[in-house]
Amino acid sequence: MKRHLLALGTICGLLATAPHLSSSILTWLRSVPQTSKESDLDARIARIENGLVPPVIIKGQPIPAMKIADRMAHYKVPGASVAFFDHGQIAWTRTYGFADVATKKPVTTETLFQAASISKPVSALAALRLVQDGKLSLDETVNTKLRSWTVSDNEFTKDQSVTLRRILSHSAGLTVHGFPGYAAWESLPTVVQILNGEKPANTPPIRVDAVPGTIWRYSGGGYVIMQLLLTEITGKPYPLILHDLVLQPAGMTSSTYEQPLPKNLWSSAATPYRANGEPVKGGWHTYPEMAAAGLWTTPSDLARLAIEVQKEYAGTSTKILSQEMMHQMLTRQKDDWGLGFELESPGYTQRFGHGGSNEGFRCDLEAYIGSTQGFVIMTNSDDGDNLATEFLGAVAREYNWPDFQPKERTVAKIDPVILRNYAGIYEAPGLSRITITAEDGKLYLRVSEFGPMPVDLLPESETSFFSQSPGINLPFTFEKDTKGTVSKLIVIVGGQTFEAKKIE
Minimal CA–CA distance to 395: which of 37, 49, 38? Predict the structure, then answer.
């Protein structure tokens, strides 16, 4: 081994002193076999690429091993880009398919994707930096420093107020879950127009309709309020704030919050596609709701950000936040959410992450605090989240992660007569209408967000059901009233429990 290192040192010296020899030496270097370490890594990546797994498996049945190319074809995902990081470095990256199908432009590690809602925790870092610098407070009402617009007070804000802490943890009682963005031919609203729901804004007004601090409810609307707050406090455009406070310190040199995307970056951007494989009409959407959905980036840049978060939590870096502030960011505030990131459930290994869904883009970032490992996947398809789930499952199996492994379920035998009692229509605030039907001894669910086809529900017990369908890895539990009549369907989505009452 020492002899090889000495030889390599001699070669480096030759390259420095005799540049005219570099071509032949490099040719010779390329002919040298891969080291064992490189071969092991390639084998590990190959196992992942050929071992994608579904999120739910049935006990007693073999786990299907699926190939990345086959799953991309199955979900009609044109392109994907991934990055795995460990011990403060990007360990490996891989790209698949096309950034643009029509021109056959391949995805590369430099291809830009919309990070969608992963924009939120990145934005949260900037807000927390301003808190650290004494320019903002986590716990005072945001109306104290807002000037051109303020949160409308009502009966819900009588005793509790909208604060930055509550906005970052989705517990401020604010409305508007997410944003569809604006097609190329549509006019763009100002931030104040978005907050008021005024044309040309395409979403309702952002208002308080629950007592702040009492419930967790995902609100992209809250992050638009934060966006206005940061621009008014600093007097700078939002993209510049994020560049100076987060992107540049983290080494995210291929990332920007600029909306619309500057023309000089168009050639680097992936084309977005619908779940049927058709391109999004007019191309990528523009998101003036930058804090909530406006980041353009790459998996490698998001990996660099996550690595910086891990380092700051460990106290080995302070490029963005101090260790104390980073600990606060990754401390549970409400349910399983910190200040910007979703966190692990109680009792599980420390982890932070966030997913993203913009028109024609789906992505996910997941990272551990103790092991310093993590993974990012970005796709240019509305169905990319299903691919991401299966790829993440393969990564989790290969690296023995405690999370994201396929869940093993047992299918119980249930009397068809019992199943017929569950048929009906169920409604809950915050959810679309749910239709349950019993056909041929099986139970089926129909929800508009899941598409036109019914989703089969498999019984785990007489009252608990699950589905193997991609993207619907949710528990469904039926409850009876005091008379023994089925009256509710309990659904847990993103850690939040919904009670859907049976209305028909």
Answer: 49
Enumerate domains of the chain plus CATH numbers. 113-407 (3.40.710.10), 410-502 (2.40.128)
279, 210 in Cβ contact below 8 A? Answer: no
pTM of the model: 0.86
Separation between Cα atoms, residue 365 and residue 386, nearest integer Å: 14
How confident is the model over 470-489, as a mean pLDDT?
86
Closest CA to 362 of 120, 176, 115, 183: 115
Residue-wise pLDDT tens digits, 198-246? 999 999 999 999 999 999 999 999 999 999 999 999 999 999 999 999 9
Of 229, 227, 235, which Cα lies nearest the Cα of 259?
Answer: 227
Cα torsion through 220, 351, 58, 82, rounded to 10: 80
d(CA 328, CA 302): 21
Beta bridge partners of 90: 85
> 256 Cβ partners below 8 Å, 6+ apart?
239, 243, 247, 262, 265, 295, 296, 297
Q: What is the predicted pLDDT for the residue at 165? A: 98
Exposure pattern of 400-411 as b/e (b: 16+ CB <10 Å)?
ebeebebeebee
CA 50 to chain CA centroid, nearest Å: 23
Distance, in Å, from the CA atom of 179 to the CA atom of 194, rounded to the nearest integer, reads 10
Residue 28 CA to residue 57 CA, distance in Å, equals 49
Dihedral in degrees, nearest 10, Cα atoms 156, 159, 161, 165: -110
Burial bucket for residue 323 (CB in 10 Å: 0-12, 13-18, 19+): middle
Angle between helices 384-398 and 36-49 (to 10 degrees): 140
Tokens describing residue 63: 């786990």
Average model confidence (pLDDT) across the chain: 91
Structure confidence at residue 33 (pLDDT): 57
Angstrom CA distances, 166 to 178, 214, 225, 334, 353, stand at: 17, 10, 12, 9, 18
